[in-house]
Amino acid sequence: MKRSPPVGDKAALGTTMIVAEAPGQLGNQLILFSHLIAFAKEHGCIVINPSFSQYRHAFEGPSRGRFVRYPAASRAGAPRRQTPGHTIALALSNLVLRIARRALPPENAILPRIECIGHSPEFDIDLNATPNIETIARSRMVALLGWRYRNYDLRTKHDKEVREYLALRPRPEIDRFIAELRRAKSILVGVHVRRGDYRNYENGKYFYSLNQYEHVVRSFIEKFGDREIQVVLFSNESIDVERFAGVDASAGPGDAMDDLYAMTMMDYLVAPPSTFSRWASYAGEVPLWVMENAEPVPTLTGIAPAKW
Predict the structure, then answer these.
(1) DSSP 72
(2) How many CB atoms lie within 10 A of CB 192?
(3) Which residues pair with 59 in a beta bridge?
């Protein structure tokens, strides 16, 4: 029978939860990981997240130790990057899970699992719900498949823990890039121009043309009157800043992790619905205007940092 140490005034579950599938790109992975960290903090669990290995070097907690785990390894040391061993471990774990999925029911003595079959909010699974708590409490190890594991109350309760573990590591070259922009302009407006994969996502609902982005950006910066504005364009494709004629615009660093770090240092963000820019807003407490459509920005009133 599994024995668990206490957490506060209740027994810890002590279970190891394995993120068994990569839930999309960086933004999606951060959202999922943040909710699992909150659950693990609440219940004294361990989270093993091999799919996050490709990003681990950029974050404080994940960069520690041999593998990505929460709680983080006690020794900080030099930040670790993904290695061939991490890739092999992820491939093997996925293979084992695929076999178990076909051969064993979710409730089994070898490797029980909880599955989230959808990608939209109606498929959310609350691990804190009694049936899931009971499944986790009975097991030393549980595999989690899918990405919509959510409990916003726990996520809010343990926000400090999430922020500390998933804090971005310093990037001095990006600090210098931002400092140079601030020498000339008083307000930095970051614009997340997400195209590429958005061409097909939800039938292109948020695949805006560059003309549409330009139109929204102009309506946004007009709200600041005569104040000096610098627009920084962050994109997953090359953007010709000359398209924004008459606007002081420059390109972001270009690398995904550099862009994320720089976006946390903006004064405002403008973006289509995206977990990437939403995380940047949350991490840097940067007010975010979400382009649900390509209409002009009506007012700055009510624009606030994203919350989870």
Answers:
(1) P
(2) 27
(3) 168
